[in-house]
What we know:
The structure is a homodimer.
Chain A: E1 2-14, H1 15-29, E2 34-35, E3 41-48, E4 51-58, E5 64-71, H2 74-84, E6 87-92, E7 95-99, E8 105-110, H3 116-119, E9 121-123
Amino acid sequence: MHRSRLHVVLLDSPAQVSDAEVSFWAGALGSTPEVEEGTPFTVVAPLGSGMVLAHQRLGSGASRVHLDIETDDTEAEVERLEALGAERVGEYDGCVHLRDPAGLLFCVVPVQSEDFAEHATVWG
Amino acid sequence: MHRSRLHVVLLDSPAQVSDAEVSFWAGALGSTPEVEEGTPFTVVAPLGSGMVLAHQRLGSGASRVHLDIETDDTEAEVERLEALGAERVGEYDGCVHLRDPAGLLFCVVPVQSEDFAEHATVWG
Lengths: 124, 124
């Protein structure tokens, strides 16, 4: 038995446009962004039900939007998603990168929010 | 004075992988997708606070994730977002397509949800 939930909608962009990107979306949504010091992440705005819109400053790579699924058992969750049609493509710093059936990248990440249990679905 | 809010996280994919894409995300989130008959859209799952994860079956074009901002005054909202750094790139069926400072496509769409007023921010 394990749990998971959709947690983050991530705006990824190259470093040189990251400040403009964060400022734009904070202005668009009327929020105050919170930089997570020592990480490439900034929380841009809460989306309700514990979900957040966040930004990731990329070292390289193209801009994109991707989804993060938070789980209390990364391996079990990845196996569940592979059985549904996802393809595992790599791992970085505890986060597993997958592609969905349309080729869109998404990530499975360990629990990182305080309200995880409140919003998670129990599987198995 | 007008109002807007972030309403939809849209998974866009070519037609040939759309059924697999919708099934995958419904399975991933434990939801029951609802096809919007006569449109290319399927609501995949509620995200809380009136937001939804949806899927758009594309006639052509690459898979991507994009955000929809819902508003009761499309022109005023587009002007507000342009002043914040967005670039208007086109319009289709009442929906205005823009690019954010990182080049990511997003849309401004007329009110389409019953709980718009409950979640919208008032501008101006």
